[in-house]
Amino acid sequence: MRAARxxxxxxxxxxxFPIVPAFAVPALQxxxxxxxxxxxxxxxxxxxxxxxxxxVYEFNGSACEGYTVKFRFVTQIVTAxxxxxxxxxxxxxxxxxxxxxxxxxxxxxxxxxxxEVKGIATKDAKGLKVDIxxxxxxxxxxxxxxxxxxxLVELIGKAEKGENFYQTNLFDGSEDANKVMTTTVVVGKxxxxxxxxxxxxxxxxxxxxxxxxxxxxxxxxxxxxxxxxPEYRISFKLHENGITRDLTMDYGDFSMTGKLVNLSLxxxxxxxxxxx
Length: 276
Fold this sequence. Notes:
32% of the residues are buried. The strands form two sheets. This protein has a 14-stranded antiparallel sheet with strand order 10-9-8-7-6-5-4-3-16-15-14-13-12-11. The protein has a two-stranded antiparallel ribbon with strand order 1-2. The radius of gyration is 18 Å and the shape is globular. By secondary structure, the chain is mostly beta strands. It contains two helices and 16 strands. It starts with 14 loop residues before the first strand and ends in an 11-residue tail after the last strand. Helix content is 6%, strand content 52%. The protein has one domain (29-263). Strand 4 and strand 5 (66-79) form a beta hairpin. It has helices spanning 148-160, 200-203, and strands spanning 15-16, 20-21, 31-42, 48-62, 66-79, 82-94, 100-109, 112-124, 127-134, 138-142, 165-170, 181-187, 211-220, 232-239, 244-250, 254-265. The longest helix is centred in the middle third of the chain and has 13 residues, at 148-160.
């Protein structure tokens, strides 16, 4: 399962020394969002007959101190052979200058630890250096890229300007933390929520806020097969404060939906002090 890719919802802000934002950025809301997961469709190749689960995403931080994301993705997958319980737990930290990104992901299958990936990515003059501590020590040199919150900040900025299509890249430390993904982003027209929107109760006072429908396709930057077929796609509704909902995650031979069922808004941190 490529659940860790959803960590692109995290929020990071590029800044210049000392701690002043280099450009205007959206007021990103610290929050905890809970989504119910269900199978949308599956073909015979997947072998999947049912999926249910829950995703919990918690974002905290500031443009001065950096941002922490805690992410948990639990699914019960039903196949002809039986039922499997997967549990993926990810914690990331992105520094306020957009130069470093630390990550740790633990993946459990039927409550047994199956894999742990831990490391830190650092931008340098050559591109991106990734130092991996687990599952075994290793160092990689990858192409220059952005981290998840730079990706999100860019997305909101382009949406506000009315840009509907663009390409960019991303490193989020998911899977084996060994590649940069190319992303193709399509942004729809800003829309008002429907009065019968099933996620309205969870949104509460945000239910009337406008949102952009967004579709992102993810391609392996080093794929050699010559096929322009994404590894997976994610579509969702994006609010200007960075909250996302009504998710569809399409992995090719199966897809699932994530519906917002609970949203807690945290107190916003104080703004960065002005430069002297």
